[in-house]
Amino acid sequence: CVTLDVQAACWDTTVTQELLKEGFHRDLLVQVELGEDAGGCSVAAQIHLPPGIYVDPYELATLQQHNLTKAVLSPDVTDVEAPEYMSRAALLLLFLAPDRRCSRCFCGSVPVHARYHRPAWGTQEALVVLESPQVLLCCCHGHLSAECWKPAEVDAPCSSDSTSPCQWHSTKHRPAHEELMLRVPVGLREHNSLVCALTLLTTGLCSGLILAAACKYGHFP
């Protein structure tokens, strides 16, 4: 009976994430509807970024300077030129802002970028799986229900403007979708020989044109 009472008191928190725009450069939108009022609390989404997708730390710093988004990236050093097979997963703590249309709703967005993948056999795309984020709350007043919210092992500040870590709490949530799929175009390995031949031919032709122009119009001592 106690278990049933606790489950009835803990209303589901709903999480929705969506990738906006097209191509390699997207905006990740996260929307959360809490099961209870969280007035005065900081709400964040902890997002696990697989190696196939990344957040540009320089772009993130610029957006935060203009107060367009608030987030903490770990690790904070990212090789934005590295392909997927030479990259590591990352962790993003995205601070969410209250939604004026709903007292228990919060949302936030951040630009994300797909990495180049290895060419594949028989398919022109690779799938990057983005799992549903974890919802975190940080409340100074300590009014969270102990049955519904548990301390989370998150070493992160209360906000992007703070450096001192805070005690975050998490709860089980109901994702609109368990995971989000990003389809990334890749080259066909069947075309390797053709691509190498065309690249070599183009390089040789351009080099010959440059050498011919240098001999014709160049001034040599």
Automatic annotation (TrEMBL):
Q: What does this protein do?
A: Stabilizing subunit of the glycosylphosphatidylinositol-mannosyltransferase I complex which catalyzes the transfer of the first mannose, via an alpha-1,4 bond from a dolichol-phosphate-mannose (Dol-P-Man) to the glucosaminyl acyl phosphatidylinositol (GlcN-(acyl)PI) intermediate to generate alpha-D-Man-(1->4)-alpha-D-GlcN-(1->6)-(1-radyl,2-acyl-sn-glycero-3-phospho)-2-acyl-inositol and participates in the sixth step of the glycosylphosphatidylinositol-anchor biosynthesis. Probably acts by stabilizing the mannosyltransferase PIGM.
Q: Which GO terms describe its biological process?
A: GPI anchor biosynthetic process
> Which keywords does this chain's UniProt record carry?
Endoplasmic reticulum, Glycoprotein, GPI-anchor biosynthesis, Membrane, Transmembrane, Transmembrane helix
Q: Which InterPro entries match?
A: PIG-X/PBN1 (IPR013233), PIGX (IPR040039)
Location in or out of the cell: Endoplasmic reticulum membrane
Specify the pathway: Glycolipid biosynthesis; glycosylphosphatidylinositol-anchor biosynthesis
Provide an example Pfam family for this protein. PIG-X
Tell me what gene encodes this.
Pigx
One Gene Ontology CC term in the entry: endoplasmic reticulum membrane
The name of this protein is Phosphatidylinositol-glycan biosynthesis class X protein
Q: Which domain of life is it from?
A: Eukaryota
Question: Mind telling me which SMART domains this protein's record contains?
Answer: PIG-X (SM00780)
Family designation? Belongs to the PIGX family.
Mostly located where? endoplasmic reticulum
* Membrane topology label: Single-pass membrane protein
